[in-house]
Amino acid sequence: MKLSLAIVALALSVPAVSYAQDSTAVVSNGEYPNTFSSGSANVSPFTNKSKRFNDWAISIGAGVPLIQSADLTSIKNGNGKNLFGYSAYVSIDKAITHAFGINLQYDRGETRQGWFNTKNAAPANASAYQQVAARTQYDAISILGDINFSNLLRRVDNHSPYRWALHGYAGIGTIAYRAYQKDETGQKMVTEIKPFQLGSMFAQAGAGLKFKVNRRLDIEGRVMYVMTGDDEFDGGGSKYSAINQREEQVSDNFFNATLGISLKLGKHESHVMWHDPLQEIYYKLDVLANKNQDIEVCKKGDLDNDGVCDDWDRQLDTPAGARVDGAGVALDTDLDGVIDLYDKCVTVPGPVENQGCPTVTPPTGGPVDDTTRTLEGIEFDLNSDRILPSNTPILNNAVNYINTSNGSYNIIGATDTRASDAYNQKLSERRANSVKKYLVKSGVESGKLNAIGRGEKDLKYPECDPATKCPEWKNRANRRVYFEAK
Fold this sequence. Notes:
The structure is a single chain. The protein is α+β, with helices and mostly antiparallel strands. The chain folds into three domains: 2-20 and 55-277, Porin (Beta Barrel); 283-330, no CATH class; 361-485, CATH 3.30.1330.60. Helix content is 12%, strand content 28%. The strands form two sheets. An eight-stranded antiparallel beta barrel has the order 1-2-3-4-5-7-8-9. The model is unreliable at 1-20, 22-46, 281-295 and 361-376 (pLDDT under 50).
């Protein structure tokens, strides 16, 4: 029975999962994919360095365990009372995808069950049958699968606030316990189980509701059902005792209700479990195959004929032929402000005036015009100072210009408006220094360069304060480094 419980719990805790955090960094090879190429050959593999979200957390909590299925129970005993124990847990949580993770959890607690509390004397009017109480002290280690149902079942990307999440947990582990029994002869230990033995295997499953307080902290209420696989956990004693002669259950199980907090670890702005994957999935509404059916698909119609009903369309004037996402917004894969329909370099960001392709001026050794003096478009991923491969042609062009000039230059780093002022100031300084190191490594004299961070005080799009007011391509444009002549 214990082995079958373990197998069932393991099956529940290991759902099918796909890739975790994807990377769309472009490999620079001197060529840029155009509208007619997918650009898949220029997509770099996912690495820990290129991940975009935090995926580790530490959780702690405390609560009340209640034995429900046993000879001696905590809930509504013969005196009509409930006996409350205590429990606590700490876990290390690893998110694998937007909807699935694995937790290593340690539980400790004490259940109380029977006809009275073992700290008290038996009621004076109690019968001989009711002269029994018990308590069980336990320690457990388990591995739990964590399913984020709020992401798994999410279907429509409406960019709505996402601060509540329903999680499901299931897993197996080892439990050690000591069960004490109190009767008319006094209190004594009746059962002891050591950890990491075949008889100490157990399973637990349940659900939790999480609330996102901020980017670092979550609060969670959780209810777990613990299956001990043991008919002596309740302190009823061995199978030959007078108590256990009334045994009808296969095992002694209990509920554990807890309230806890999770501290999310990592340098990124958000945790992968709080990221809505549908914000990045290309979605189109399929038209009914049988057009003879008199069914009203869109109540308000589809004004721009993009396949998304006007009820949900956030961009009602999409150009004809443009691909759109589930909200009806024209796709801009490289987030450079030029939609894919008109972008000649779909996966590489570039200015609007150059049809979405980077401006690369071949080195001539002579003067460079003023459009090259201010290098716009050297952009960064969120919460990152890593130079993207797609920016190296622009920086190489800057090397040629600075080396052929007699002037010196300020390297200005900037951020969007997410996070605090102090954090953004340090991030902008790291970005400026990252570009300076690249230029010096490429042959520019260090004395010609001065790295300066301006944080969120130097927005290319000032209207993006806060960042939620603007689409992502504008916030990305604010996360930049550019040059100024001294």
